[in-house]
């Protein structure tokens, strides 16, 4: 089954409660919010699992996605309510909601038949120069995958011995030339690590000092002079890093681990990375601990992705990780640089480097020390070095992260930037922020352009010049039977920009007046229904050059 596809109904509460019936349910701590939508009349129905402890009321807010405040409430509800229907909505639009009673709060970005995103902007790809030649084939696939997902790729090869300032200057030059379009930065390989601050967000005095600060590479305007502990100003760009430097626990070299990651990245994008369950949670800190990062970061997220039918497994990693694979995984517990004392015992980088492949696509991890990801055999980076899964990992809990936009097709890099810009407890747009909001350590390990719910693309695209000057296109259908339409694009250069030419219901199309269009791309399209409504989802683009 494809990661994130539909499945048989089963309550989130029932699944997560099975392994620990003595603990309070997640809904005691966080509002587990999802949405069902209808087209006629247009309605978004927010729904949630009732809090076991009674509440006096709920307050409902709504805003545009990029709005900087929630404004006045749109409704106040009785504490006995478990839903709210918004009929002041339109098909094709999105709305972000907050439902709250003091610190008991849920967030969702919802919409009805939201149009596809056809152009995502420009992504700056910084590649470790010392790795570029060995990975030339994989880098070409990555470039095509990014183009096929609606990105324009701006690549720079940067020596591992360069200064962070010189690497950032390349990004700033790209951004300053087109600030409205440059959106993301993908750091691939050992791009120079900028360290800043005098902090210990894991609470250990022996670990007080400067930490890696990849937000530096997404901050285009503010000065970082003086080694700030708080991110200066706003982060403009979505940043993610894939870096296997100094990971001797794995028998493969950094080059081979990068090659392995890029192959996994491609496999996921074309819908070939499958999972048997939606999410796994191992709460080493215990449900009642203030350090339990699973509650605001995992359990609040899952219903927005899959509704109340999410297949969530909670318990011992020893029991569950070898048996099933998951779209999301969350592990917390007392940590070290290379380990985490989760339920089931201490899980270590050495174990992750063994033959066992603990499969989850997106990871959340939280424990002491491994948030400082530049350390040798770092536990957080180790999840990305596994052979078949592990594409992203974030140190969640200090502060809390907000991934709910991914339910309607946003990238994980968008969630990273949103979290980095979420201010502290007195000014945060999303609360509870958790400790150490807006500090420099907040970073994503993984490809920032990744998004959820990939669908199999069309294949075997052929573009043939025919008599009269037309170009005839044909392709093989997506393996997904729910695909009903294909978006056809053309460009004069293989790197784009690709402009939409037509929307086709079959698997053939003729371009009667191609002009200087020589390169073509076809994307499969389907309506993807999630716990936040529905959006038209485009597959990776399949590309071909016109031939005579």
Give a summary of the structure in a few sentences.
The chain has 548 residues and is of the alpha/beta class. The protein is built from eleven helices and 30 strands.
Structural class: alpha/beta
Radius of gyration using CA atoms only: 23 Å
Gross morphology: globular
Strand content: 25-35%
Uncertain stretches: 1-12, 17-21
Topology overview:
Elements: H1 12-17, E1 33-39, E2 42-48, E3 57-63, E4 75-78, E5 83-86, E6 94-101, E7 104-114, E8 121-128, H2 129-132, H3 136-148, E9 151-158, H4 164-177, E10 182-188, E11 195-199, E12 209-212, E13 238-242, H5 254-269, E14 277-283, H6 294-299, H7 302-306, E15 312-314, H8 317-320, E16 326-332, E17 334-336, E18 339-342, E19 345-348, H9 349-352, E20 360-366, H10 379-382, E21 392-395, H11 412-421, E22 444-446, E23 459-465, E24 471-476, E25 485-491, E26 499-504, E27 508-511, E28 519-530, E29 533-538, E30 542-545
Parallel strand pairs: 7-29, 8-9, 8-10, 10-13, 14-15, 14-16, 16-20, 20-21
Antiparallel strand pairs: 1-2, 2-5, 3-4, 3-6, 6-7, 11-12, 17-18, 18-19, 21-22, 23-24, 24-27, 25-26, 25-28, 28-29, 28-30
Helix pairs in contact: 3-5
């Amino acid at each position: 089954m494809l990661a994130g596809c539909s499945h048989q109904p089963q309550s989130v509460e029932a699944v997560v409660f099975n392994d620990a019936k003595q603990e309070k349910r997640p809904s005691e701590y966080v509002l587990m919010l999802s949405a069902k939508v209808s087209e006629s009349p247009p309605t978004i129905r927010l729904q949630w699992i009732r809090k076991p402890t009674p509440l006096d009321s709920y307050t409902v807010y709504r805003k545009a996605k990029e709005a900087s405040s929630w404004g006045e409430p749109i409704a106040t509800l009785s504490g006995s309510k478990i839903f709210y229907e918004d009929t002041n909505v339109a098909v094709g639009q999105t709305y972000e909601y907050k439902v709250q009673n003091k610190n008991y709060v849920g967030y969702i970005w919802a919409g009805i038949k939201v149009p596809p995103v056809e152009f995502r902007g420009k992504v700056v790809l910084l590649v470790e120069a010392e790795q570029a030649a060995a990975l030339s084939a994989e880098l070409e696939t990555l470039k095509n995958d990014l183009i096929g997902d609606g990105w324009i790729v701006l690549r720079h090869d940067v020596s591992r011995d360069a200064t962070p300032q010189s690497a950032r200057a390349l990004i700033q030059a790209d951004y300053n030339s087109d600030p409205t379009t440059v959106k993301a930065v993908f750091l691939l390989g050992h791009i120079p690590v900028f360290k800043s601050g005098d902090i210990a967000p894991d609470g250990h005095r022996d670990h007080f000092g400067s930490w890696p600060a990849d937000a530096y590479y997404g901050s285009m305007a503010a000065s970082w002079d003086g080694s700030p502990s708080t991110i200066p100003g706003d982060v403009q760009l979505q940043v993610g890093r894939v870096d296997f430097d100094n990971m001797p626990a794995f028998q493969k070299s950094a080059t081979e681990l990068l090659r392995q990651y890029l192959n996994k990245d491609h496999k996921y994008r074309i819908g070939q990375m499958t999972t048997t369950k939606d999410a796994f949670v191992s709460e080493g800190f215990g449900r009642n601990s203030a350090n339990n990062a699973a509650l605001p970061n995992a359990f609040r997220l899952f219903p927005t992705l899959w509704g109340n039918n999410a297949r969530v497994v909670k318990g011992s990693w020893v029991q569950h990780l070898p048996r099933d694979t998951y779209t999301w995984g969350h592990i917390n517990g007392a940590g070290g640089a290379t380990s985490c004392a989760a339920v089931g015992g201490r899980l270590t980088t050495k174990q992750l480097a063994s033959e066992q492949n603990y499969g989850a696509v997106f990871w959340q991890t939280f424990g002491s020390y491994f948030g400082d990801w530049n350390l040798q055999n770092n536990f957080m980076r180790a999840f990305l070095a596994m052979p078949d899964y592990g594409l992203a990992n974030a140190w969640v809990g200090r502060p809390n992260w907000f991934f709910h936009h991914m339910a309607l097709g946003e990238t994980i890099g968008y969630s990273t930037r949103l979290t980095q810009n979420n201010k502290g407890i007195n000014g945060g747009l999303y609360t509870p922020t958790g400790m150490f909001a807006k500090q420099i350590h907040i970073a994503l390990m993984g490809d920032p352009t990744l998004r959820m719910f990939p669908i199999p693309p069309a294949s075997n695209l052929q573009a043939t010049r025919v008599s009269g000057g037309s170009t005839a296109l044909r392709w093989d259908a997506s393996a997904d039977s729910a695909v009903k339409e294909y978006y056809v694009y053309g460009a004069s250069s293989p790197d784009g920009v690709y402009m939409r030419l037509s929307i086709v219901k079959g698997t053939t199309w003729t371009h009667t007046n191609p002009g200087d269009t020589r390169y073509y791309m076809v994307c499969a399209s389907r309506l993807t229904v999630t716990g936040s409504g529905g959006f038209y989802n485009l597959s990776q683009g399949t590309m071909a050059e016109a031939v005579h």
